[in-house]
Design brief:
65 residues; mainly alpha; extended
Amino acid sequence: MASAGTGSHRAGIYRLSDEERVAVRAGLEDAREGNFATDEEIEAFYQLHRYPAPISGIASSRSNR
């Protein structure tokens, strides 16, 4: 028996659905084009999901939409 935390429960191959595959391809295309979330979009995400906000200016160093 494998001990807890070994990751053995994750063995196997995950198959993307067609919808997930489309989303991944769209995200990769956005990245190739330099389209990243703005600081405001990131802040809104963190507010919506109630996560502590990251250090400000993270997206500023990248090309914004």
